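Run Tellurite resistance TerB family protein through structure prediction, thanks.
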Amino acid sequence: MFDAKSLLDQVMGAASRSGLAQGGKTGGSGDLMSRGKDFLSSNAGGLAAGGLAGLLLGSKSARKIGGKAVTYGGLALVAGLAYKAYRDYQTGQQNGGQPPSPQQRAPLELEAPHGTAFDPERAPGGSQIVARTLLSAMIAAAKADGHIDAEEQRRIFSKMDEAGLDSESKAFLMDELRAPLDLDKIVRSATSPETAAEIYAASRLAIDPDHAAEKAYLQMLAARLNLDPALVDEIEMAVREQEMA
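Sure, done. The structure for Tellurite resistance TerB family protein is below.
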């Protein structure tokens, strides 16, 4: 099997470099991403213009926190984000269903939450399977608001060559790009409630749900993953908190 963890890191790193290359400014407190152009905002040209990074991490959320993934690793970032959301969700349950106060909210762990159920190494199949699952989930989410035609595929493949991806990584990404959107496949890959939360977090990072199709996709994904609406709200809150960090 190819190194899915490294591929996830490469994709996130490419998004960071792509954002900075657009002439954006670095922000405060570890924000290495420019706001830049939303590569997924235009079905006609967004995916082609953005290339590999634009496809997977063209959303505002991913651009703003993606720089942290360059340092800590993409898998660790997603796992930490889901873990934080779950801890805040638990606090809310202890509060009788009321969201936690700002003082009660857990900090984001920018390293994989070792020794917990969110530790990728403890997942069935290990961290490589989790990384592969998250890559598939992000690509599926990117398809929610349109399709990827042959010309877009060609340009994305060119970006893969520029990034120096090995043949197995390129083959995996192209297979995922060419395949029709398959929500059942994504749901089946959720081998635990923790992985389900990570899949949703990665999907949310990949897109900005400001169009009806994207909102519907995330709502359907959450329902199919059997995620408590309160946990979904906490994942959204965790993403927004990092946008502002």
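Residues 47 and 55 are 5 Å apart (CA to CA).
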